């Protein structure tokens, strides 16, 4: 343990830093492991089929338990809470959770969704206090989009949901996972559409999350190639990060408004500045998207443990953290076939 870590550990209330000096600042909260899409890079149908057993209701954290843990994490320095899934809007009554989290001082609340249920829920989420939303949109081409979500879901319905967010005053950011031979030919069209509507767009390299998506390095479209494709038609120039730990490398359109970003976990890893922890739907704390094991927080919440004792576990886990999977990605990591699935802890 470093001197800085020891001081943090003794102080208790001071923001903990891990073994690589990274603070705990972001918490991604999966509210369900279920999803109505079967995107091949996340929940391929041949694995997550009709016989797949999702978590029973009593094993999933209640809203009250999520809010309690969120308050404890906020006391340890977390300033950003992001609700994820699975598909979070499948969780009944989600605006009620948003209202509970809004009562926590000093935290910003966002949500990531596939957009399928936004038309009906955007207004309620905005009224509950949600201030930012990210929508996964992998292509504007309906054939490509249906192929990628593998659920027969048309892109027009997601676009309607995005429009509903705008009408409700919710700023929308767009995420697009790019896979070689599948949708890289549609990235310029998507960039132009997002620019015209004032949406920030983030392209994500296809990643080896979990062990069910059949990931191969040949399927990765490097962020540099994506930027080149777009810049050829709409010139781009680099932009400095907004803050330490921002995962996207930012680019803005030259001589005009709007920007894109590329999340390059494969070709240009950003482990060194990662400030994220993840809480699964059943209450396990993970310190890396590529982790194999988590720490059971649900048991502590349900066994009568005090907030202070739970906070001590959070500090202990973070102080011991040294994850940097993407920086080490090589033959040495190829054998880690028990990595947690992205649908279980959110992207």
Brief account:
Helices cover 33% and strands 16% of the residues.
Walkthrough of the structure:
- The chain has 347 residues and is an alpha/beta fold.
- The chain has one domain (3-345): Aldolase class I (TIM Barrel).
- It has 13 helices and twelve strands.
- It has helices at 3-11, 63-75, 94-102, 118-128, 142-149, 155-167, 187-197, 223-233, 298-302, 307-319, 325-328, 331-334, 342-345, and strands spanning 26-30, 80-84, 108-113, 132-136, 172-178, 200-205, 236-239, 249-253, 259-263, 276-279, 284-286, 295-296.
- The protein has a twelve-stranded mixed sheet with strand order 7-8-9-6-5-4-3-2-1-10-11-12.
- The longest helix has 13 residues, at 63-75.
Question: What is the topological layout?
Answer:
Layout lengths: L2 H9 L14 E5 L32 H13 L4 E5 L9 H9 L5 E6 L4 H11 L3 E5 L5 H8 L5 H13 L4 E7 L8 H11 L2 E6 L17 H11 L2 E4 L9 E5 L5 E5 L12 E4 L4 E3 L8 E2 L1 H5 L4 H13 L5 H4 L2 H4 L7 H4 L2
Parallel strand pairs: 1-2, 1-10, 2-3, 3-4, 4-5, 5-6, 6-9
Antiparallel strand pairs: 7-8, 8-9, 10-11, 11-12
